[in-house]
Design goal:
heterodimer; A: mainly alpha; three-stranded antiparallel β-sheet; B: mainly alpha; two-stranded antiparallel sheet; 22 helices
């Protein structure tokens, strides 16, 4: 390579501008850093926000259903004037009702792992409880 | 920095951006809960649900006899009411009225009115679907006809020891009682038919009702009434042409029971029961098809309804099994009719049969097959829409401390205290969820095809009398 003042000339005669190359590398680096920053902002704030907005209604519903099922189970264990077959069916119904508890837990884990804060989940639960009771 | 390596990486930029997108949105994509079908599979497994057996439409000689007896008003005292008067296919096997109108009425279904001035029957007409199912252990809203012992097959009925022998099943036992009930089919001593049709029959006195004129209690004269009824069917002595039914019924009995020539009321009851078992058997509802593995048989709304029915609605605690009833007795705080409230004559339900305080205001859990077609609902037909009937279960205590226009409480304290603790806890169902349950109830309904209706409803009956169908 022969230094020709402002340009660099390759042995095959082609000419390259070192300033342009540096500028290109800088652009790539800057774009990468900006993208990573955006991704980081999205992961920290955007994704939890969107997920929380999308799932808050269904989570609240599962939460209330689950709370009711657990409360009912305690109350119904005290006796409901049913014969043994009736009681068996009642507890089967409660098992189905409590599917909402597993769904609630699953959703909660997914929200937490996506970056939703535990305080936000608790706030959702309190708000659902206040609306219902 | 190795520029060539960076360049190589950027050549894969599309792959990378795809992966990044997947990563960014993965939180939303994988947050899926159980599908309706998965939940239903859990329900089917937990409750061990099975489709109901479909009965073959086998038209035997016994079926033919039962069919004619079911539709023929000749069985009623004044020859103007048949079983089909209150059990119409058009109304899901019931009559569309809040309280049934047997004798003294004119018209069909909800248009039927009482013109006799007498009190109408105090209860809503029940449908007849699948009453031969093994789960069925009692009949009528108060269960006054029931199987006392499943092993020996002994029945408990208001007839006690007078119950005729030879009755094959609970449905046969049940079918005798409308014949013995004044406001259903038997009629009152001295009354003439309210119907202007069948004039020649109206001129004939009600010889069946005359039998209990002295005591006022038909049940005490059951043997005589049954004997007279058999005589009317098979040995009627008259010069009039109307007796032409006798040879026809003789032929039907001979074909249905070729092993004997000695007929009694049990053969009438057994033939009626056989006809009802075959004609009123639900065949292939959407829910049954779903249980048989056809996931497309149910709409999404009905699937959600089934989940609510078996889950948070707790409906299946009492409406259980293939026929959706436990055939037990519960109080759900149904408001009495205006007349009963004003006269302080509350319907005590099961208590009238057992005399046990704990049975006060309890009624038998109604089976739910075809329930969408049997409006109005409850033992007194006080609720006209199925949605409202389901909604009543959500909070039956809401009527406490509310007043009737007469100034009396809608629900007496005693009635409120009797409400099942299962319901007094208040269910967690909103209107939308109740709507899904109604959709599910639609999916357990069944309607006869045109050809099946032709197999059920006869063109004419041996007596030649007009009948409702």
């Amino acid at each position: 390579m022969i230094n020709n003042g402002t340009l660099l000339q390759n042995r095959d005669g082609s000419v390259k501008n070192p300033g342009k190359r540096v500028a290109r590398v800088n652009t790539i680096l800057l774009t990468t850093i900006a993208s990573l920053l955006l991704v980081n902002i999205y992961l920290d704030y955007g994704k939890p926000f969107f997920l929380l907005s999308e799932k808050s209604a269904i989570y609240s519903s599962h939460y209330i259903d689950c709370e009711r099922a657990q409360k009912s189970e305690l109350e119904l264990k005290l006796g409901v004037g049913l014969n043994q077959r009736g009681k068996d069916r009642l507890f089967k119904s409660l098992e189905i009702e409590k599917l909402s508890c597993s769904e609630k837990s699953l959703l909660q884990q997914q929200m937490l792992s996506a970056g939703v804060k535990l305080e936000q989940v608790r706030a959702l639960e309190i708000s659902a409880a206040m609306r219902t009771y | 920095m190795n520029f060539h390596l960076l360049k190589k990486c950027f050549k894969q930029r599309y792959t990378i951006s795809f992966n990044v997108t997947l990563f960014l949105f993965s939180g939303i994509c994988y947050a899926q809960s159980m599908s309706e079908d998965e939940k239903l599979q859990t329900i089917i497994h937990t409750f061990n649900l099975k489709p109901i057996d479909s009965k073959e439409f086998y038209l035997s000689e016994k079926y033919a006899l039962g069919q004619n007896l079911f539709y023929d008003p000749i069985l009623s005292g004044n020859r103007d009411v048949s079983c089909s008067t209150c059990h119409l296919l058009d109304y899901g096997g019931a009559d569309g009225l809040p309280l049934s109108i047997g004798v003294g009425g004119v018209g069909k279904g909800p248009q039927r009115v009482s013109i006799s001035g007498r009190e109408v029957h105090p209860r809503n007409s029940m449908d007849l679907w699948n009453r031969d199912h093994n789960n069925v252990s009692s009949m009528f809203w108060d269960g006054r006809v029931e199987i006392r012992n499943e092993i020996s097959g002994k029945f408990s009925t208001p007839l006690g020891e007078r119950l005729p022998a030879g009755l094959e099943n609970l449905m046969a036992v049940q079918s005798l009682f409308p014949l013995l009930t004044a406001d259903e089919m038997l009629g009152y001593p001295g009354d003439k038919s309210a119907s202007s049709e069948n004039a020649e029959h109206n001129a004939i006195p009600n010889e069946l009702a005359d039998l209990y004129a002295q005591t006022g209690a038909p049940i005490l004269h059951s043997d005589e009434i049954f004997e007279k009824l058999l005589e009317r069917l098979l040995d009627f002595q008259s010069d009039s042409e109307s007796a032409s039914w006798v040879p026809k019924y003789r032929e039907l009995f001979e074909k249905a029971y070729p092993e004997t020539a000695d007929y009694d009321i049990s053969q009438v009851a057994n033939a009626l029961a056989h006809f009802i078992e075959v004609a009123f058997s639900t065949r292939g509802s959407e829910w049954d098809r779903y249980l048989n593995g056809d996931e497309e048989a149910l709409s999404v709304e009905a699937k959600k309804g089934a989940i609510n029915f078996y889950g948070k609605g707790r409906c299946a605690v009492c409406h259980s099994g293939e026929t959706f009833s436990d055939y037990e007795f519960h109080s759900i705080g149904v408001i009495d009719t205006d007349v009963r409230i004003m006269e302080s004559q509350r319907d005590v339900g099961r208590y009238a049969v057992t005399g046990r305080e704990s049975d006060k205001f309890k009624f038998r859990t109604p089976p739910l097959r075809n329930v969408v077609n049997t409006s109005p609902y409850f033992h007194n037909g006080s609720v006209s829409s199925l949605f409202e009937a389901v909604k009543h279960h959500v909070d039956p205590l809401r009527n406490i401390n509310k007043y009737h226009s007469s100034g009396r409480f809608l629900l007496e304290k005693e009635q409120a205290d009797a409400i099942s603790p299962l319901l007094s806890l208040k269910l967690n169902l909103n209107d939308s969820e109740i709507g899904t349950i109604v959709s599910f109830l639609n999916s357990i309904s069944f309607t006869h095809t045109e050809s099946q209706v032709q197999k059920v409803v006869p063109d004419a009956v041996p007596s030649g009398l007009e009948f409702l169908h």
